Structure formats: C-alpha cells, structure tokens
Recover the amino acids of this structure.
C-alpha cells in the first residue's frame, strides 16, 4: 500500500505531498512525471485529510 504524506506550509495549506511506494526504501516528493496516483488503489494518507491530499494530487497531475 502506498503512503501519501502532506507537507504543510505556514498557512496550513499543502505545500507538497511525499509518496512512499510500498516497494521504495523511502519517501520522495510526488512528481506526476514519475509517480501515478490511482484513487482506486488502497493508500494511506497522513498530514492532512485524505480529500485535501487527493485534490492536491489531482491538481499536480493536471499541471504536470
């Protein structure tokens, strides 16, 4: 199961999302050119509500 970890800024908004893929040794900043977010796959969300992280990931996928 992949883990998505929100990094918050001073205004308590998501500044970045780190992803720890189940096969990776450690987390890395989500990059839509390298990572694929599939909302149908089970995942763990930390640091912010799941809906906020998913919205951030969707926006990153559209702009990436």
């Amino acid at each position: 199961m992949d883990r998505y970890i929100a990094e918050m800024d001073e205004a308590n908004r998501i500044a970045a999302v780190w992803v720890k893929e189940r096969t990776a040794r450690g987390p890395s900043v989500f990059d839509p050119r390298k990572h694929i977010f599939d909302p149908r796959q089970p995942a763990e969300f930390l640091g912010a509500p799941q809906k906020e992280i998913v919205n951030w990931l969707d926006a990153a996928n559209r702009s990436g």
Q: What stands out?
A: The chain has one domain: 2-63.
